Amino acid sequence: MEAIAQWLYAIDELVWGTPMTVILIGTGIILSIRFGFRYQRKMCFNAKNTYGQILEKGEGEGEGTISGFRAACTALANTVGTGNISGVATAIVSGGPGALFWMWLSAFFGMSTKACEIIIGQRYREHYKDSMDEFVCDRSFVLKNAFGWKRGAVVLAVFCCLFGPWTCSVQTEAVVGSMNEAFGISGLATVTVIGLTCLVTIWGGLRRISQVMSKAVPLMAGAYILMGLGIIFLHWREIPAVVELIFVSAFSPVAAVGGFAGATVRDAIQFGVARGIYSNDVGTGYGMIAHATARTDHPVRQSLWGWGEVFLDTMIICSITAFTIIITGSYYTSEATSGTLTTVAFSNAYGALGGQMTAVVIAVLAWTTIIGMYYTCEKSVNYALGDTRLNKRLMPLYKLYYMLPCVIFYNVQADVLWAFTDILSALYVAVTLFIIAARHKEIFRLFDDFWERYLPAGERGENPPIVSFDCKSAKEC
Questions:
Q1: Residue 283 gets which letter from DSSP?
Q2: Cα dist. 51→1, 218, 311, 466 in Å?
Q3: Mean pLDDT calculated for residue range 344-361
Q4: Cα–Cα nearest to 317, from 237, 247, 229, 212
């Protein structure tokens, strides 16, 4: 096991080195400039056209499987989870407080990258009418529909089918550690409950998944935000010092202190960007999967949800986690890591009850993330099997396979699980960034069409026709 761990650490260090960081952040910068920073500076417009429509009746205009809000909640199930809690904790333990700065930077420019993923998903999706009656898309669908690479698409789909479920082990590891720290519950009991309840939920398909996510994710995210803000409010005098520590640590090494082993600037960048990407899914391609199902009148309008996902995930929830860990001094006074460290931080602030409440939140968010991740893996199976009866018949078997890594590898060391997850994320990012670069002209065409033609026409009361795509029905996509 030690040899495997060292091998994974070496690969992780290689794939998340300087080139990947430069390419990822550089792509976000270039896209943001081309978009005129609309996803960052038009916050009122973005909020009005996304979160502002949550309470409105109806499921939205256009063709699709579910509403834009439910699609966003399915995507948020991937982003708002233990990545915000245990991922941030491991980033600070390995990269120091400065890792949060690099999370912020990659997220700010990553809003434009996430928007591109959503536009791509809407543009190259297919309507699977025979086997499941859903609009579907992922990287494999794009490789086929945008490039005509059918064999490469199958290879990628099979790879994602097999190894995608393994990344969920970081979720169960975080829950097991937190529940044991707060309640003394055994790991076997925890993973048994998680495994059975997740299986029951994913058995109901997209509509049940999106229905559960639309209720559980906002509730748990709201509870965690309030708990974290309470700690920050109680220690408000220390906020300037914490902010200074974050910025200084982002550009200078941090010495070892207490249980903290110290960190270099490279560590801060590597772990900040890598954990930030796992948390908000910028560049991984998950955005195109969840949002391809949405009913919307234009692909670019749906892409506005990407801003909200990244902002809520990184700028708010990840920041709250990091501030809590730093303010309470938990990262250098405790030997804990992953979700256990965050639980310790809340216990230091609120006592045993705070740790218990945090453990419950971690458990629920991990549960929703496992379910949300299942949907992304399912799309690879859908592509590999096609819109056939076999697709429908074999899905129950895949659901069982999907849950196995979650309940088997929960007791593996957290650093090993995160290293494996980082490596898979890097592969997903490489494919997604290639797709965005190769199809940038189509992305820009749709972006300009929305802002220069479609939106002004609607504001003039002209009622322009809905812009929607289905590559399965179209002769040319």
A1: T
A2: 46, 11, 12, 21
A3: 84
A4: 229
Residues in a beta bridge with 136:
126
Per-residue pLDDT tens for 302-315?
A: 999 888 888 888 88
> Residue 247 pLDDT more than 90?
yes
pTM comes to: 0.87
Predicted confidence (pLDDT) per residue in 116-151, tens digit: 999 999 999 999 988 888 899 999 999 999 999 999
Given a contact cutoff of 8 angstroms between Cβ atoms, the answer to whether 367 and 174 are in contact is no
Alpha helices in 124-238 (DSSP H): 139-147, 150-163, 169-183, 187-202, 205-234
Lowest mean pLDDT among 132-141, 254-263, 385-394, 451-460: 254-263
pLDDT at 457: 93
Q: In whole angstroms, what is the distance from residue 419 CA to residue 416 CA?
A: 5
Instruction: Give the Cα separation of 471 and 477 in Å (integer).
Output: 5
Task: Please give the single-letter amino acid code of residue 247.
Answer: F
**8 A C-beta contact, residue 138 and residue 380:** yes
Residue 121 C-alpha from the chain's centroid:
16
Lowest-pLDDT range of 40-44, 82-86, 196-200:
82-86
| Residue 100 neighbours by CB under 8 Å, 6+ apart | 88, 91, 92, 246, 250, 272, 318, 319, 322
Residue for token pair 């790991």: 187
What's the rounded Cα separation, in Å, for the pair 179 and 355?
A: 9
Task: From 169, 158, 215, select the one nearest 195 (Cα to Cα).
Answer: 169
> Which of 307, 291, 290 shows the shortest CA–CA distance to 110?
307
Q: Are 409 and 1 in contact (CB under 8 A)?
A: no
Both tokens of 2, joined, read 């030690």
Asked if 166 and 377 touch (Cβ cutoff 8 Å), the reply is no
CA distance 225 to 200: 28
Helix or strand or coil: residue 12?
A: helix
Q: Could you tell me which of 97, 165, 170, 168 has the C-alpha nearest to residue 340?
A: 170
Q: Would you say 346 and 85 are in contact if contact means Cβ atoms under 8 Å apart?
A: no
Give the pLDDT confidence score for residue 59 in this predicted structure.
47
pLDDT > 70 in the chain, percent:
90
